[in-house]
Amino acid sequence: MSIELKDLYDDFRDANVIKAYAKQIAIDAKGLNRPIGIMEVCGGHTHTIMKYGLPQLMPANIHFVHGPGCPVCIMPKERIDHAYTLAMQENVILITLGDMIKVPGSNGSLQDARAKGADVRFVYSPMDVLEIAKTNPTKKVIFFAIGFETTTPMTAALLESVITQKIDNVLFHINHVTVPEVMTVLMADEENRPVENKIDAFLGPSHVSVIAGSDIYQPFASVYKRPVVVSGFEPVDVMQSIHMILRQMIEGRSEVEIQYSRAVDKKGNEKAQALIRKYFEKAPFFSWRGLGKVANSSWKLKEEFSSYDAEKIYKDILPTKECQDHKLCRCGDILKGLATPPECTIFGTLCKPSNPIGSCMVSSEGACAAYYRYGNMK
Amino acid sequence: MKNATITLAHGNGGSESKELVESLFYSTFGNSILNNSEDAALIENGKLAFTTDSFTVSPLSFSGGDIGKLAICGTCNDLAMMGAKPKYLSIAFMIEEGFSFEELRHIIKSMHDELEKNDAIIVCGDTKVVPKGNVDKLFINTTGIGEVYYNGISASHLKEGMSILVSRDIGSHGAVVFAAREGMALSSELKSDCASLYPQVKSLVDASISIVAMRDATRGGLAAVLNEWASSSGVTIEINEASIPICEEVQGICELLGFEATALANEGTFVIAVPVEEAEKTLEILRQTNQSAAIIGTVNNSYKGKVVLKSSWGTQRFLELPTGELLPRIC
Amino acid sequence: MCLSIPSKVVSIDEEKQICTVDTMGISRDASLAMMAQGDVKIGDFVLIHIGFVMNKISVEEAEASLETYREILSLMDEDERRRSVEEDDNCVNRT
């Protein structure tokens, strides 16, 4: 039996399979002795869960706890201010990926900078930066790099191309972050979490795991005794993963399992990992919105590539003050799974996609944006 | 209005556009005709329909049409959607210095061909040429007057039990223009749905269909129309997600870029509300032009002013008015 | 940001380290910088992320998943059949 490309979409969205898993989960959930919270780390999973209405299919004793896996959402204001400052420089073209241009900083978003005359562009692929750099030789092209492990090797590949093609007008501002360290921070704070927000199991990110391999989650199973199931993106994937988590909990196991077996293995993409290690090293810490300083959770360019590091070259003009979010914004709590978007007093009123106050409302993967778009039905 | 400057989102046809139009334009110019905010204004006691539209699409030419065809379709369709026969149009050109004469001739030919399909004529016009860089190649405005032959079409007349249909698969124009702009090669035959709708509307009227509401789903797509209707009529529009027709290629572009097909612009696709007993007959007539026409939902009163999307596995959610910059210069 | 799409490889340019992929009728180029030389073949299903091939999709594993789904569907069908039979059965002694 041969698989067509269409099957890789349709069959993992099959309505009957989704319903079948919903039934199976309801049956298995009767074996739980208390309500459980499953954290999906990745913003893409938050999106899938809300878009396909999966909370409506869960029995009363299973609920989702949303995690900080949205690289746009976790960007602290001061780094957005970096981007804004760089964009407003003479002869600079600031390039970034998609949603980043809408996140509000202290003086406004990159979109606002563009409306004021800054040359801000978004690209779908970092490689598009090369063409822009070549056609604008007198400008400094700064790539504001964001993303988790999934996107980090692509920035490395871009740097490699910039070096081999001897392009001299491209700089990088690196904001790549890593998942396991922030999961550890959440676990370390577990006893302070209210019962209704406790994390009993993890739905492991799909594409971070494609690059990094599922072994990176081993400590959460062996040390923190939490089942981890690495899940694909489609609704059937998520339903099957929840089923697998339930089976682990009922059988008293805590293991790392791979539901997304068609794309993920234990070791990941080693060539991609090697590319990362060739150009980057871990920075001592990164300030995550809502979580504060997390050690070893981000990458920076290695010393020998300092000539490409916009953060070093523009050090004198980049703002250093840490900025607070709007008083009423609960992004921080939402990113830690301590609150859901509707519990924020400005959700949907003062803060909405057309006028985001916090970053969780901006990114298509942010919990607030997902709830606004898909989940505001009572 | 929160912002001090106009952003691209204010032109998106979604929530920000609405905010700008309501807070500045309606508040300054408001009157009983304007405030109806239908596709075309009904003037002279409902005898005539009057509308205007400007076209800034980039690229100027795309699979299935060009800015000229769009400029005629756009305005004629707005008239057709109000039950009017397009009769007289004006055109205004804003041309960038250095624009190719040959390209302009081509665009004029497209406009001429499309006018014939609507049996309408250009009766006045204006041409401005501006220095290089002051306009991106070519912008066109068309204004149209039509003679109303079917009354009573309004976004505020929807009632419980009515059926909602869409005239063909959605999102083609938005998908094609976006792909062309991004330099995405389409290995398929995907074309913009850009087309004149007057003939289809005429068939419906000739078959005595009771058209309650009708609108072409331009900027903001199907989602914008349905939300506007739900809000104007104070009802719920319940849509069966699985019955919304979307062709594979548009689905592919949406997958690739993370768009929702319901938010993509159309230039030859319309949504229509009819009494439930006329739904099948309406569908039959629509299918004479496009096999992909479909009955997609009904009207009820469960969530006043909202659009509910029901999945085929028992979940439901609101379909919101599109927001954000999504696709600038799509029409 | 995690958005990644299954696509089919239709041509490969080893020298430029790129391949052309088809995603439901849209052709795009994607970089092979993340993949080992010769790993990707025409006809393979791959995951594309922001213009790069991230990895190959295993057809065997996909088929195994689909087999699991067929099983759960038939299990549910069986369950429902049994339940509807039991419901209609007026056996008073059944506990």
What's the structural blueprint in terms of helices and strands?
The complex is a heterotrimer of chains A (378), B (331) and C (95).
Chain A: H1 5-10, H2 15-29, E1 36-42, H3 43-51, E2 62-69, H4 77-87, E3 92-97, H5 110-115, E4 119-123, H6 128-135, E5 140-147, H7 152-164, E6 170-176, H8 179-188, E7 201-204, H9 206-212, H10 218-222, E8 228-230, H11 235-250, E9 256-258, H12 270-279, E10 280-288, E11 292-301, H13 310-313, H14 331-335, H15 367-374
Parallel strand pairs in A: 1-2, 1-7, 3-4, 3-5, 5-6, 7-8, 8-9
Antiparallel strand pairs in A: 10-11
Helix pairs in contact in A: 2-11, 3-15, 7-12
Chain B: H1 15-29, E1 41-43, E2 48-55, E3 61-62, E4 65-66, H2 67-80, E5 84-96, H3 101-118, E6 121-130, E7 138-148, E8 163-166, H4 172-181, E9 185-186, H5 198-206, E10 213-216, H6 221-233, E11 236-240, H7 248-257, E12 270-274, H8 279-287, E13 294-300, E14 307-310, E15 316-318
Parallel strand pairs in B: 5-6, 11-14
Antiparallel strand pairs in B: 1-2, 2-7, 3-4, 5-7, 8-12, 8-13, 10-12, 11-13, 14-15
Helix pairs in contact in B: 2-3
Chain C: E1 5-13, E2 18-23, E3 26-31, E4 45-49, E5 52-56, H1 59-88
Antiparallel strand pairs in C: 1-2, 1-4, 2-3, 4-5
What can be said about this structure in brief?
The complex is a heterotrimer of chains A (378), B (331) and C (95). With 331 residues, chain B is α+β, with helices and mostly antiparallel strands.
Walk me through the structure.
The complex is a heterotrimer of chains A (378), B (331) and C (95). Chain A folds into three domains: 15-71 and 181-258, HypD, alpha/beta domain 1 (Rossmann fold); 77-179 and 268-313, 3-Layer(aba) Sandwich (Rossmann fold); 331-374, no CATH class. Chain A has 15 helices and eleven strands. Chain A has helices at 5-10, 15-29, 43-51, 77-87, 110-115, 128-135, 152-164, 179-188, 206-212, 218-222, 235-250, 270-279, 310-313, 331-335, 367-374; strands spanning 36-42, 62-69, 92-97, 119-123, 140-147, 170-176, 201-204, 228-230, 256-258, 280-288, 292-301. In chain A, the strands form three sheets. Chain A has a five-stranded parallel β-sheet. In chain B, the strands form three sheets. In chain B, strands 10-12-8-13-11-14-15 form a seven-stranded mixed β-sheet. A five-stranded mixed β-sheet of chain B has the order 1-2-7-5-6, covered by helices on one side. In chain B, strands 3-4 form a two-stranded antiparallel sheet. In chain B, strand 3 and strand 4 (65-66) form a beta hairpin. Chain C is rod-shaped, with a radius of gyration of 23 Å. The termini of chain C are far apart. The interface between A and C is large, with 59 and 39 residues.
